[in-house]
Amino acid sequence: MPEMVADLPPGEREEHALPAMSFLQHLEELRRRLIYSIIAVGVGFFFCWGYASRIYALMQKPIIDVLRAHHLPDKLVFLSPTEPFNLYLKIGLMAGIFVASPFVLYQVWMFISPGLYRNEKRYVFPFMGSTILLFVAGAIFGYKVVYPQALNFLIEYGGQFQPMITIGEYTDLFLTIILGLGLIFELPILVFFLALMGVVSAGWMWRNLRYSILGIFTVAAIVTPTTDILNMCLFAAPMVILYVLSIGIAYIVHPKQRRARRERQGK
Known about the structure:
Structural class: mainly alpha
Number of domains: 2
Shape: flat
Order of helices and strands: HHHHHHHHHHHHH
Oligomer: single chain
Radius of gyration: 23 Å
Number of helices: 13
Distance between the termini: 22 Å
Number of strands: 0
Low-confidence stretches: 1-18
């Protein structure tokens, strides 16, 4: 990226120059951002802990609906007296992290922004908005589409047995699917930063499309809690779409394309 500054007209070099920070200054900045983020998560945890039972009611709705559809008892069980209390602590923490995520993402951006050009710092609000939007979209997709289908398959497959589903096992499965899909939907954000730094390019991603699709279906097969092809495809389809979308993002933000746009504007 320094050579990009050298290519700019002298009057614009100062505007796009990167501020210099020593290694110790970077560590101090990282420590400060981490402290702010931990405090925000703590505040979110104490706020959400009071609503943990309501939050879990939404979390267990998919399994309750599936159990009722198969005319089975719709109560989850626990095996230890402390399990419900620990569960609500866990739910409060996870919900607190989600509530505090905009502030935490802002701290992440404030940490990396000194390494960006001034004209690139305008990406802060699109970065935060798109990160939250994509994660929520992935979580909703899992909650509304993938997870109910997977639960229905699993309960129907074990139809000859009486299910006794514990709250701990169900919560782990729920978080694996919902958080997993939420993180998978962050692929365009990851590609944005990799392309911004010149690590990947749109051409490289397009040339490796077939291998990427193979990798996507491999990941989907590992993450999917069931063994049927339908659920694997439900996982893989949005990942393929996001990968293709990421190719366009990589083309827009790659250093070569940004340099080419500046040269065209300078003519």
